[in-house]
Specification:
Layout lengths: L4 E3 L2 E3 L1 E4 L7 E6 L13 H11 L3 E5 L16 H19 L3 E7 L1 H12 L4 E7 L4 H8 L1 E2 L2 E2 L8 E3 L5 E3 H7 L4 H5 L6 E6 L8 H9 L3 E6 L9 H15 L1
């Protein structure tokens, strides 16, 4: 069912899929850079939703600002305002659904957002799943190379055109350089499941290893040969790891 949320005048397109036999837990799922909440049954977040519903966990998925069917311009997107998006969704889940427990799941940049939101709300979040979390976006911004873009990290232009036709804002990169990703994330002391492919060419699995080093209660799963999207044979492994972790 529709689960739209308003944040600073922007409508975020969300969907709530309750479990047939709910156990009181709701999982909020967050997509990555240039992605969406999953409008095809074959994409990761949609597949996770179906698996989680089978074990009694309802899900809320949404498009970040400037993505999918949500309001906003991609050129204005930053990790900071994606955290604001996620916080607005979290508040809406609390008030509208009022679940006994809330879990956060994020892929790629959505993993960074989920990790930081959990760090801000350690008292509200039950479990955290980070799939190929793109914490290297900070290192990339500092080095002056982001998703195929090359720029002077000390003199970042206002806008940078991307190969996919989208425009990335310089402010995205300026804020990315200063994000306290791991410092904020480690404030969450609940159970964490980290999943990363060893053949990820977009985000080094060293990001997940660094997360694992900072958490007090985490498990790291490195999937041999898996890419950033955790596609192919790695998809079933990922779905099973997440389901087992949430159900445990």
């Amino acid at each position: 069912m529709e689960f739209n949320v308003t944040r600073d005048g922007l409508t975020l397109a969300g969907i709530y899929e309750p479990a047939p036999q709910p156990n009181g837990t709701i999982a909020i799922l967050m997509h990555g850079f240039t992605g969406d909440r999953g409008y095809s049954k074959t994409v990761l977040l949609a597949q996770l939703t179906q698996r989680l519903r089978q074990i009694g966990v309802g899900t809320v998925r949404f498009d970040f600002n400037g993505h999918g069917h949500s309001d906003g311009d991609f050129a204005n997107m930053t990790v900071l305002n994606e955290i604001a998006d996620a916080q607005a969704v979290l508040a809406a889940v609390q008030t509208r659904i009022a679940p006994a427990q809330i879990d956060l799941l994020g892929h790629s940049q959505g993993g960074v957002v989920a990790s930081m939101l959990a760090g801000y709300y350690p008292d509200l979040i039950h479990k955290l799943v980070l799939m190929a979390p793109a914490a290297t976006l900070k290192d990339d911004a500092i080095a002056g190379r982001t998703r195929g873009l090359v720029y002077d990290p000390h003199h970042i232009p206002a806008q940078l055109p991307m190969d996919n036709g989208k425009t990335l804002s310089g402010f995205y990169l300026r804020t990315a350089q200063l994000l306290p990703i791991y410092e904020t994330a480690q404030n969450f002391t609940g159970p964490v499941c980290l999943i990363h492919g060893t053949a990820d060419q977009i985000v080094s699995n060293q990001a997940s290893q660094r997360y694992n080093d900072g958490y007090k209660n985490s498990t790291l799963h490195l999937i041999p040969g898996a890419d950033h999207g955790l596609d192919g044979a790695a998809r079933e492994t990922t779905l099973q790891l997440v389901t087992n972790f949430i159900a445990d």
